[in-house]
Design brief:
single chain; 205 residues; alpha/beta; Immunoglobulin-like; 5-stranded mixed sheet; 18% strand
């Protein structure tokens, strides 16, 4: 895993170095007051595309001139007293390590006022702006609440309760028939006759 990461980083660095472009200031590389009728340094810069990692070369006599990196105010005023950086080696190569505006002027104020000055706008690399964003942590899904069981149905008021099977059941066959109402006068009459004739029979005997 670590070996693969190192190889990937080396490849990215190699591609970055290979893709970088070196520009010569003004096209020729000479840092001097532009000749009459020649393009200004800014016209040359507007015709080119500068990106992060590119560099620009300035060639000039070291004992007569210099290259100053300044801000926009100093660029407009050609005030060489307090530059951001100063280069005096005669063969300056400046690398653009960020995007945005860069302002260069000659260390000789008269030369600056005669047009020995340069404004370059460096574009941001698209590869640097498309880095992978950290994936958001996924929170576990919330557990669904248990489904509520449906309430038990109440017995219907219109239906009679069902008696338990085998207990208390009354069938028509188990009810004894009522006594015959006509048999009661007959029994009473025979009783009376019996009581009447029994003494008479005893006398005859």
């Amino acid at each position: 895993m670590a070996k693969g990461l190192v190889v990937t980083l080396c490849f990215v660095l190699l591609v970055s170095v290979t893709a970088a472009t070196q520009f010569k200031v003004g096209g020729s590389g000479e840092w001097k007051v532009p000749e009459s009728g020649a393009k200004s340094y800014n016209q040359w810069a507007e015709a080119n595309r500068f990106k992060m990692g590119d560099n620009i070369a300035f060639t000039y006599p070291a004992n007569q001139d210099s290259v100053l990196l300044v801000d926009s105010n100093t660029y407009n005023s050609c005030n060489a007293s307090s530059p951001i950086d100063r280069f005096t080696d005669g063969n300056t190569i400046f690398t653009f390590a960020r995007s945005g505006s860069f302002y260069f002027i000659s260390g000789n104020q008269d030369n600056c006022k005669k047009g020995e000055k340069l404004h370059i706008v460096v574009l941001a690399n698209r590869n640097n702006s498309t880095g992978l964003a950290p994936s958001p942590s996924l929170s576990p899904p919330a557990e669904a609440p248990p489904a509520e069981s449906p309430p038990a149905e109440a017995p219907s008021a219109s239906s009679p309760p069902t008696p338990p099977s085998g207990e208390g059941e009354i069938t028509p066959s188990s009810i004894p028939p009522p006594p015959n109402a006509a048999s009661f006068p007959m029994i009473s009459l025979m009783g009376i006759l019996g009581l009447t004739f029994v003494p008479f029979l005893n006398i005859l005997v």
